[in-house]
Design brief:
alpha+beta, 1 helix, 17% helix, globular, disordered N terminus
Length: 105
């Protein structure tokens, strides 16, 4: 069926860590106010560094971001286009480092 994801993107598991793309930065920009509301902070910088993705009923993005002098890991869910809706911040992790591996959370 043409509805199946490509073989390179298996449903369920996360893919390899990849450098952030403009699309991933756009996701970060879209959930910025939600992140600021949940953390109680205003970020002057929110730069996507790298990410992993997981295909589900949409896509989970696990994104490492630089916020000036701190690093966060974000889990952002983007629903399938046919289901509509905007990307949303599922969860986040603070006190990360630039070198730290991104893991499923």
């Amino acid at each position: 069926s043409s509805d199946l994801p490509p073989k390179s993107r298996m449903c369920g598991g996360t893919g390899p860590t990849q450098p952030a793309t403009p699309e991933v930065q756009d996701l970060c920009n879209q959930i910025r106010s939600e992140l600021e509301q949940k953390t109680g902070k205003n970020y002057t910088e929110l730069t996507a560094h790298s990410y992993k993705s997981q295909v589900v009923a949409g896509t989970n993005y696990f994104i490492k971001v630089c916020c000036g002098d701190e690093w966060l890991h974000l889990r952002v869910f983007r629903p399938l286009p046919c289901n509509g809706g905007q990307p949303s911040l599922h969860s986040y992790q603070v006190s990360k480092t630039e070198e730290e591996e991104i893991h499923y959370f």
